[in-house]
Structures are given as C-alpha cells and as structure tokens.
Amino acid sequence: MRISLQPGYVLHSRPYKDTSSLLEVFTAEHGRVSLVGKGARRRSRGGSQVALLQPFTPLLLTFSGRAELKTLTQVEAAGTATNLRGERLYSGLYLNELLVRLLHRNDPHPTLFARYARAVEGLQHGDDIEVTLRGFELQLLDELGYRLDLTTDGSRGEELQQDIWYHYDPELGLIPCPASAKPDRPAYQGADLLQIGRGDLAGSARLTARRLMRQALAVHLGDAPLRSRELFRAQQAPSSPSHEPSQASDT
C-alpha cells in the first residue's frame, strides 16, 4: 500500500539505528501513523530530511507498507516551518503529546487534523494560548467519543443554571453538587461553564476551564505524567507567572 503526498505533521521522532528515525506523524486522512525514515538523519549534498522532519512544520508525506510501522519514502514542505518559542513551544509539545497518547493508529480524524493545524498557526501568530489549548482539548474529547456538554445537566437533561455548582462525572458529564459533597472534589460554577461553552475564557472561567479539562483528560491519560509539562516546569523560572501547559490542562 502506498500513500502519496499526504498532508501531515511530525508529532514525535527518535533516532533509529545509525542514520534513520522512528516517527509518529499526524495525517489528514490516515490519522496517527508510525513511520521509519530510513537514512533520514544522513547528511547529503542536498541536505538531510532531518531539516524537514521537525514538529509543527506542515508536510506532504509519501509512505508505504502494510505493517503498522510503514516506510517513509518522500517528504516535502507544504508550508513555512513554524518557529515556536518559550511557552508557545511547550504548548505545542503538549498538543503533540496528547495526540500520541490518546489517538489510535490509522484512525482518521480530519476535523481534528484541521483544528490542530489552526492551533499550531495560532500559537505561531500570537493567539491566546489558553483559548487555543482549551478549544483543542474539547475537540479532542469529542473526536474520542467523550463529548463534554457544557450546557446540560448530565443527570437530569436540564440546562445548566448559572448559580448552581457542578461536579464532573466521566460517565454522566456535569452534575449538580450534592449537599454532602466532599470539599476536596472539584466543583465548577454554572456561570463559568456556560461562559466556557460560548468560547469566552475571561475572568474566573479561565481557571475553571483549566481545572475542568485537566479532570476530563486525566480519565483517558492515566497515571503517567505528560513529559511536555515536566519539561516546561524544569525550564520555568520560579518567580515568573505562568499559563503553562500543566496549568492549561490543570495538572
């Protein structure tokens, strides 16, 4: 099987043997695909593929094979390389790690692919980081079949009320807090939830969105920590303010 000139992005790469690379890529029509780039790190007169096979660069990928690990046979740039730095770089790495951790291989997600491309472009051009991350996280949950309804009480099917507090239940969604709720269980005010549903992260809705998305994604991520968050924390000055990916998904 040969796939030609498939739009895609490198999510992760690691060295393989002397000059090759093992790649996890996200493609428009085939979802997450594992590739081996034979000789991808070999220097040549015309330069090596390693200059192209970088995260956040829009690519056209040609690959073949019937096994789960396919062979990259050609790569071309499909646009300008995206140069993310600082917090925006770690936010992009966070998105990549979510896709590697949560998407099954060879499962197409064209809508999510388009959302990812917009998110990378938005990080490059100065869009609000948290709005970008929260929107992507919501789309990702939807694509995984776990849509988070920010308008409806999951236990009664009624509209959320602004002055009522809600818990997140992985099976039911947002449900009213019982009077006997434990104080250490996350609770979210209806007004904030409705505001987030409108795409507005002003004021207290910003922190609410972080906490809620962290809780919703943790169900699927399991106990293993996200490497992108650890990298950000290691680089962050202790005194500097943060919108880091760890806060962005509320770890």
Quick synopsis:
By secondary structure, the protein is α+β, with helices and mostly antiparallel strands. It contains seven helices and eight strands.
Structural summary, described in words:
With 251 residues, the chain is of the alpha+beta class. It has a domain at 1-80: Nucleic acid-binding proteins (OB fold (Dihydrolipoamide Acetyltransferase, E2P)), CATH 2.40.50. It contains seven helices and eight strands, in the order E-E-E-E-E-H-H-H-E-E-E-H-H-H-H. The chain has helices at 86-102, 110-124, 129-143, 190-197, 204-221, 227-235, 245-248; strands at 2-16, 20-27, 31-37, 59-64, 69-77, 165-169, 173-176, 188-189. The strands form two sheets. It has a five-stranded mixed barrel. Helix 2 packs antiparallel against helix 3 and helix 4 (190-197) crosses helix 5.
